[in-house]
Amino acid sequence: MAETVLETEGLTMRFGGVTAVDGVSLKVRARELRCLIGPNGAGKSTCFKCLCGLLKPTEGHVFLRGEETTGWDPHRIAAMGVGIKMQVSSVMDGLSVQENIWMAARRHNDTGAATAKAEEVIDRLALGPIARTDLGRLAHGERQRVELGLVMAQDPWLVLLDEPAAGMTGEEVTRMAEIIHEMTRSAAVVVVEHDMQFIRSLASTVTVFHRGRVLVEDHVDRVMADPVVRDVYLGKQA
Amino acid sequence: MAMTTGRSAARDTGVVVILGALLVLGLPLVADTNMLTLLVIYGMLALSLGLIWGFGGILCFGQAAFFGLGAYTFAIAGINIGESTLPLVLSVLVPAAVAALLGAFMFYGRLGDVYLAVITLVFSLILFRWLNTTAGPAYVIGNARLGGFNGIPGFPLLNVPGYPRWELWGDPLYYVAAVALLVVFLLVSWLLRSSFGRIAIGIRENEERVSLLGYDIRARKTVLFAIGAGIAGLAGALFAAWAEVVTPSLFSLQQSAEIIIWCIVGGLGTRFGPVLGAAVVTSVKITLGGQAMLDNMLVLGLILVLFVLFLPRGIAPELARLWAWAIGGNRKPVRRRAPRGGVADG
User: Fold this and answer.
1) Distance CA A223, CA A225 (A)
2) Residue A24: inside a domain, yes or no?
């Protein structure tokens, strides 16, 4: 059994009277691919933000590689070797693709090694033709790809992605799924998503959120077939 | 970015040194060195804000505070020590240390940009008000009386290190200040090429993203803020040596506002722009000072409004565009992105 890289214990987040995340306990192992799904307001994004330090959970604990990181600042969590991509694409608009990826690589490498690493990531993601272009001039799909490049350049052992396929074309989604599978060779990947098509194509273990709690946790095919999940979340169309 | 490789860095340094040397030696032929010294000093002050605002995204409304602190430190330490070498060093270190404290308070407190501007402005105004009240004999630091509204006159001027009798004023002071500006300019260029500088530009572009890459942006912004304050402090010391008196008006609202105008007029996000902006705006101001028909502040305000409306990127980027167009022959001028764009160097 691979080592557990991410674990939460009774993770709870309240905003005033609303309990967005309610006693969630998760375990993700090394090189595992895990999707967190659920309808809007189920608490998956809030849970995600607690994992990467953007929110401080009201109760409960987060452990990364056995170390308690509850309430840490995002930069400390990222510095441990955790690659994070938020829902809204977030890049350095005024800088080139190369400069963006170099900056991600520089965190764990010296200047020269970071330049080489950036080169390698640009090749892997086929970003060569636009390497010198400012991010502000790129299309949405390209920006998303560059942001994945930022995550890759950090050589993470845990990757947290919030809705990576949002707003992408069919072809781009397929490519995204390939990239994510490639990432699992060296890292555990946690994906928050509600595009069912995309989740099917990832074919991974799925944790279904409902009203802040974990409803089921199983392989995607069995989850889809589960009548409770269909009733509560997926509705009749799925 | 073109500045990342070793060869282009060497070429950049070469161009700056040659152009800088030509300007340093050539300008005294066409203008009075006394005025040029002031332009050089203001250029350095503008460069300090241009660095932290144009490249670090930190809008400091009170850069005058560090300029004034540098000047007062130079004067007070000079009176107590009697020689200018150590005071010159202190006039860099004291403002930098004060800025590091103030910056740590603001950046670790996660204050937004607006609050940052307000706090820095209020900080300089507090110093302004307080120094105005220090007229009595009770306000002394060592042998130096703070002197309230009248400030401190009669401190030792800049001298050749180790020889207090060889004071530098007039032409020699101009050359010292101009070479100091050139050296600071080269240091700023080097800083911007370094990893620290490149990551600072990333922070300007997207703070949250850079912190999610694992960088501690609070510490980095604090350090950059302190470096900017150190440069402003050096400019302050040179100003004190030039004016031969320091007064609380160094900390005034007008002084703070002017530095911001210099940067906007010259071109934010460029190294040369703020220096140029300071020179142009100050020249206009001095020329206008010779007549009484138009109010000076009114004209400065008008210049700012016109620039924001018609040349929002400032003089330097437009000059660079013209230059590229001129040497590129019939090729079209390269349009770069508007105000907060990349490192458009002028």
Assistant:
1) 5
2) yes
Other beta carbons within 10 angstroms of residue B30's beta carbon come to: 7
ipTM over 0.90: no
- What is the average pLDDT value for chain A, to the nearest integer? 89
The size of chain A, in residues, is 238
Q: Does A151 touch chain B (CB under 8 A)?
A: no
d(CA B146, CA B155): 12
**Where would I find the H helices in chain B?**
6-30, 33-49, 63-81, 85-108, 113-132, 171-193, 195-205, 207-212, 217-243, 253-266, 272-289, 296-310, 315-327
Q: A129 lies in a domain?
A: no
Q: In terms of Cα–Cα distance, which of B144, B146, B142, B102 is closest to B124?
A: B102
> Across the interface, which of B1, B209, B340 has its CB nearest the CB of A90?
B209
Q: Which domain holds residue A36?
A: 1-79+196-238
**Rounded to 5 degrees, what angle do the CA atoms A228, A232, A233 make?**
110
Contact B225, A136 (CB under 8 A): no
Q: Which of A91, A96, A111 sits opposite B1 (nearest CB)?
A: A96
In total, how many domains does chain A have?
Answer: 1
Strand partners, A6: A28, A64
At residue A1, the pLDDT reads: 58
The whole-number average pLDDT for the span B160-185 is 92
Q: Which pLDDT does position A121 carry in this prediction? A: 93
Q: Nearest CA to CA, how far is A60 from chain B (Å)?
A: 23
Q: How far does the CA of residue B160 sit from the closest CA of chain A (Å)?
A: 40
Q: Copy the structure tokens of residue B272.
A: 């040369």
When mean pLDDT is compared across A64-68, A202-206, B45-49, B259-263, the lowest value belongs to: A202-206
Cβ-contact A33, A180 below 8 angstroms: yes
CA B212 and chain centroid, separation: 31
- Provide the pLDDT for residue B234: 98
User: Which class for B317: exposed (0-12), middle (13-18), buried (19 or more C-beta within 10 A)?
Assistant: buried
Query: For position A2, which CATH number holds?
Result: 3.40.50.300
Q: Where are the domains of chain B?
A: 13-253
Calculate how close chain B gets to A234, using CA atoms only, in Å. 33
Closest Cα in chain A to B202: A92
A116 touches chain B (CB under 8 A): no
Residue A204 lies in a domain: yes
Q: Are B236 and B95 in contact (CB under 8 A)?
A: yes
Nearest by Cα to B346 from B75, B71, B12, B53: B12
Q: Average pLDDT of A167-174?
A: 84
Q: b/e per residue, A151-187, with b = 16+ CB within 10 A? A: bbbbbbbbbbbbbbbbebeeebbebbbebbeebbeeb
The angle formed by the CA atoms of residues A186, A192 and A56, to the nearest 5 degrees, is 95
Inter-residue contact B116 to B58 (CB < 8 Å): yes
- The C-alpha angle B288, B22, B311, rounded to 5 degrees, equals 45
Contacts of A22 (CB under 8 A, 6+ apart): A12, A43, A211, A212, A213
Q: How far apart are the first and last CA of chain A?
A: 33
Measured distance CA(B37)–CA(B92) in Å, rounded: 19
Asked if B211 lies within 8 A of A79 by C-beta distance, the reply is no
DSSP-derived 3-state class of residue B86 = helix
Q: Is residue A114 part of a domain?
A: no
